[in-house]
Design goal:
By secondary structure, the chain is of the alpha+beta class. It contains 15 helices and 17 strands. The longest helix has 15 residues.
Length: 451
């Protein structure tokens, strides 16, 4: 690995980008979602009565007041459109994922405020009481604060502890121990991941001609970082290293630093994601995906159109965290089906590279976007547009031929939702007409029906 000569120090910590992002989001002490007392997920105290809102303009005014009151810039669809979004998910589960003779088991990864869990349970109780009598719903939640919030919200709706539990855990933290987790089961089950895929860590890879490089981050204390910035020379700067100098929002006063280090791709997860694309679509002469084939080729083309080049390099963000998650779920829940909903595009991203994350802090109901992912851990949300074609390919690979599909959220809600439940009086329906940049993924492992 190439290094800046001044950086050699026992105080240096070098990690892949996905580990740096994981720390920033779910580290127990400093993570954005997990630090003590933190619950950066907007929560409505009562549902919005959409049928009483005259029109789209008035709906936007209502939404603005909600965001200002909650000091948030957005709400998840399951929160904003409660209970109707959760009911649509429940209807899909009842239609597609019941296994004769087996009780319904649902696992929700990152269950937020518990709103979807409450609404799914309530709908099953209302329309299929025989299924409800034996079902079990488990939330796998890395945040202690959110896990407690989930328990309270579900209990308030009258669901007993034998129907719902919230376990504080990092479900994808250790693949090798996944089979021994207390929640692991070989029984048929459904896994829900609602607005979770976008927060799974990604890796940053760079293509220079036919060569591919992975990105690591060297972290230093503030004093050491200042010394490195002063001593770095032009030759060092040209050798695949970039010093973080603060984003537009944080500026030069940020008390910390990181150095991006490029090195030939050697990480097994990164290699697997790239080589999977090559096998699916044909490869280039470098042994990794060529620049004009498959979804990696599409990323390259989009990068050129989006001017996502950094000093002549093409930068891509790839979903290695999703691969880790799918492997862990396959080990712990080998007979699961999956329903995942998320964003397939994000507006106003300023971080470089195709598939780059939006890095955002909320203040007084407004977003502050940052030009780097190297913000202080826990200070900002880091979320990615989900490439559903890539997710489908990786899920199929891990699940040995699972049946997969993904569709626009409008189609999913139109098929399983309650007609007119979120329609304003002028006919505008925000659950159908907004969130046009979201999709729903459904995967079913081939052995889900096997005994």
């Amino acid at each position: 690995m190439q290094r800046v000569s001044a950086a050699a120090s026992a105080a240096t910590v070098c990690v892949l980008v996905r580990e740096r992002i994981r720390q920033a989001l779910v580290d127990p002490k400093v993570g954005y979602f997990t630090k003590h007392g933190s619950a950066p997920v907007g929560m409505l105290q009562k549902p919005v009565n959409f049928n009483d809102i005259p029109n789209q303009r008035q709906y936007q005014a209502v939404l603005s007041r909600i965001y200002e009151k909650l000091n948030t810039a957005w709400l998840t669809p399951s929160e904003l459109f409660q209970p109707h979004y959760g009911r649509a998910v429940a209807e899909h589960v009842l239609k597609r994922h019941l296994v004769p003779g087996a009780p319904l088991r649902i696992f929700e990864v990152g269950a937020g405020n518990g709103t979807a869990a409450r609404d799914v349970l309530s709908h099953v109780r209302d329309v299929a009481p025989d299924v409800y009598a034996t079902m079990r719903y488990t939330a796998l939640e890395p945040s202690r604060t959110l896990a407690q919030r989930q328990r309270s919200r579900v209990a308030e709706a009258g669901h007993a502890k034998d129907r719902f539990e919230a376990l504080q855990c990092e479900p994808f933290g250790d693949l090798y121990s996944a089979r021994t987790q207390s929640w692991a089961t070989h029984q048929p089950c459904v896994v829900l991941m609602l607005e979770v895929l976008d927060n799974l860590p990604h890796d940053r890879v760079v293509r220079q001609g036919s060569a591919w490089f992975e990105t690591a981050v060297e972290c230093f204390d503030a004093g050491e970082a200042q010394a490195i910035a002063k001593t770095r020379n032009a030759e060092d700067a040209a050798v695949a290293k970039r010093t973080w100098r603060g984003s537009k929002a944080y500026g030069a006063g940020y008390d910390g630093a990181g150095v991006e280090v490029l090195r030939p791709v050697e990480d097994a997860l990164i290699l697997h994601v790239l080589e999977k694309a090559m096998k699916l679509h044909g490869g280039g002469d470098s042994g990794l995906p060529g620049p004009s084939v498959g979804w990696v080729g599409k990323m390259a083309l989009a990068a050129r159109w989006l001017s996502a080049k950094v000093r002549g390099e093409e930068v891509f963000w790839i979903p290695t965290g999703a691969l880790e998650a799918f492997r862990a779920l396959r080990a712990a829940l080998p007979r699961h089906s999956m329903i995942a909903a998320d964003f397939d595009a994000l507006p106003d991203v300023v971080v470089a590279g195709h598939g780059a994350p939006l890095v955002s802090t909320t203040q007084h109901g407004a977003n502050i976007d940052h030009a780097t992912y190297l913000v202080p851990p826990g200070e900002a949300d880091i979320f990615f547009p989900v490439n559903f074609d890539a997710i489908s390919a990786l899920y199929q690979d891990v699940s040995n031929g699972a049946r997969v599909e993904h569709m626009a959220s409008r189609s999913f809600i139109g098929e399983h939702g309650t007609p007119f439940a979120t329609r304003c009086r002028d006919g505008y329906d925000p659950m159908l007409d907004d969130f046009t940049n979201t999709r729903v993924f459904v995967g079913e492992a081939p052995n889900v029906m096997n005994e």
